[in-house]
Amino acid sequence: MSDIAASGVPVESTAQRSRFPVHILVFLAPALVIYTAFSIYPLIDTIRLSLYAGDETGARYFVGLGNFTTLLTDPVWADQFWNALRNNLIFFAIHMVVQNGIGLGLAMLLSLPHLTGGSVYRTLLFLPTMLSVVIIGFIWQLILNPLWGIAETLLQAIGLGSLFGPWLGQESTALLTVSLISVWQFVGIPMMLIYAALINIPDDLLDAATVDGAGPFSVFWFVRLPLILPTLGVVSILTFVANFNAFDLIYAIKGALAGPNFSTDILGTFFYRTFFGYQLQMGSPTMGATVATAMLVIILIGVLIYLFGVQRRLQRHTF
Amino acid sequence: MADVSLHSIAKSFGTAEILRDINLTVDDGEFVVFVGPSGCGKSTLLRIIAGLEPVSGGEIRIGGRRVNEMPPAERKIAMVFQSYALYPHMSVYKNMAFGLKFAKTNKAEVDRRVRQAAEILKLSALLDRKPRELSGGQRQRVAIGRAIVREPSVFLFDEPLSNLDAALRVNTRLEIAKLHRDLGATMIYVTHDQVEAMTLASKIVVLNHGRIEQVGAPLELYRHPRNLFVAGFIGSPRMNFIKGQVLGLDDTGATIAFAGAQAEVRTRLGALKAGDEVTIGVRPEHMAERAAETIALQGRIDAVERLGEASFVYMRLDGGEDVIVRAPGDEPAVPGERFTAYLSRETLYVFDAAGQAVIPTSRSML
Amino acid sequence: MKANVRPSRIAVHIALILYTILAIGPIVLILINAFKTRRAIFADPLGFPDARTFTTIGFDRVFSNSDFGLYFFNSFTVTIVSLGLIILIGAMAAWALTEYRFWGNTLLSLYLAIGIMVPIRLGSVSILQMMVELNLVNTLTALILVYVAQGLPLAILILGEFIQQIPKDLRDAARCDGVSEYRIFGSIILPLIRPAIATVAVFTMVPIWNDLWFPLILAPGDGKQTVTLGVQQFIGQYVTDWNAVLASLTLAIAPILVLYLLFSRYLVRGLTAGAVK
Fold it and tell me: What is the pTM of this model?
């Protein structure tokens, strides 16, 4: 194809190209086809399915928003849905405060000028993020297992032995424990993004602030923090989407039932149970689609708040 | 107002020695320019005076006080950065007022000083703008304004003009000179551009490889460069260097053979001996003077640059050396043709094998 | 000034070292105990294996009771094929969107950007139905198609920003020489985006390798399990066999660990390059 164009009369071939840009189509088509067929179409089809109900025979009929009414009001569904949503919000809040807080702190330390061993720290601190959530879940399950007792031994060594309990097994502590395991794994992401933003601030700017008489705290509060706000916004929305889409960790540690007594149930596990069924309840594709659509709406609300409420106000600075 | 003095300043990063044994006094109200090629340590020296870089040895005094242990803000200095270093999230006003916040200046006083500085720098209409809404020249002025409002004893400039286009650079240069006259403050200015150094400085410090090569008034450096480096660095186009050899000596000077010619030049007694290899230096502007007692050097023209008021003739001498001659604007030289450069004995510099000037410093030059 | 820098630097290093221990301690703990006898795992969990406690019995059991080699092959195939397709197809689209001005350009870019924020997982109900109809359930093809669709949006964004930085003169010079658009892409742009591939790899390869959701839904059996799913199923079965559990976890971690430590320089550089904005 290229040979034809190259050997043809240049003027003619450019004229032809500008009349019908076949090459643009050729470049775009594969991506558009795969993306549309396996990403956008399924999402739209899922929304469509959420408006139908099915019976045992597999026949489907249109029920409008009936599934959503069931989901939000029917005691069997609503209790589980609101429970999962509440747990998911707690899951998110813990990530925002602990994960992003520690990430910010580590990024600040790593961005100190002339830090020896900086790249070694970065590599090691980011390591857990690279591993599978499932593997991480099992690792922590073993470590926190009272049978093995290693967590208890270590806590005793620093004098906190009395705090130890079967954290993953107790209704009151399971969600917090699972959240902290997730925080432990993903702290590398905010750390890296914030670190990149911090080292992008020109040294001159920090020097100028020092000459202006700002101490380390003032330099952080008046110069560095305002300049990394856009990155903190990005980190927040990434955390939000990841948290409201989480599934693997809880499935690996607690199974689809997200025990004890649904105390670790979040929208991802709720979606899975609804779709595939569990124990005595049959799975329902249409109710599954309904839960997925509800999750989609929640995520879209979050993204829209970010795009129109947060991002517009945060001026991205070029240096 | 204050003077600045540096005593045996040394600085190294790890094993790399950046500055060695720097001794310098900057008098109160003086405009001192640090000039030198990139990597010579001039910016590091400025940052040391600012307090942004700790020294490895030596003492810094500002206004008579030792300031080695003092943070930048207490040194009564202000600095203008090459990149301007304006806070991108603050308005022009806030940029200028930022430093005063930490000096615990009261609001009315801050306002007075910011508006006054804005007045001086013609920024009054732009106080509410963000840096990204300003042109390069305006940003530059805000950076200077931020220094002015602090009313420092010493202004430090780190290549402040290098990000401006040529026309704006000349303008701003004049403004900085005017600012110095108006404020009368001590200013230390770093540049790699010898034209900026010559035009602004009351005293130039030439640095090379972390050492001071020479300190002096601009014309003094031009007329009496102490060594090959300064001779080559100050002046544009740079001084021509031609290899030569001492033929003989007498009471008043030496006879030196170079480029197929001979010249008697006055030198310090005993500085040279017969047979020594030397370098003859002569500035392009001193090579087209057809007066009595001139030395004629023959060669072939490689290229001619016509600037209007002058023509630069690039020629290869028959001895093989390439030189530049600043000829009158109407010089009818043509590339490929032969050309004769005329040198006067009085305008020759002689440097010994170690690169040190051996011409007595007392001689007068045109 | 220098005097008060030192102690604070030491405090910084203490804080970083403590957190580093917290970050990699659990992983090291699994790795060292995988090579110890059951007795030693419980008696001395923090000790390194020595001549007396060393054993590979866990690994023997994993290999005899499951098809770990096959799982690795599956994961490897899915990840590499997906990554290759994402990079090639993504680069083509990124090139078209950044290079040519045509009607609908911005709209298309926005359309492709939806996938960055909206997780494709939420379409699982429909994806499963589609795979059933296409007869692709329990095939690696199903996984590859989904992962390519999932990875494309971010890859196009990253590659697009990268392609924008390639000097326009380079392409215009080629056009003046009469080189076709296809060849400009193939022999000028593709070789030049090599540095961006590391970045794309971090963001697409790792999630694919580690994913549990789609293997669980689309290819849960018939020897098409990926490592992540395989380990999950294996541990579910042998939960009380500590040697086997620790060995299976070690096997799942090891390849990523080796690859990460070998290429971490590029990964970290890609992450901090500011390509994601």
Answer: 0.84
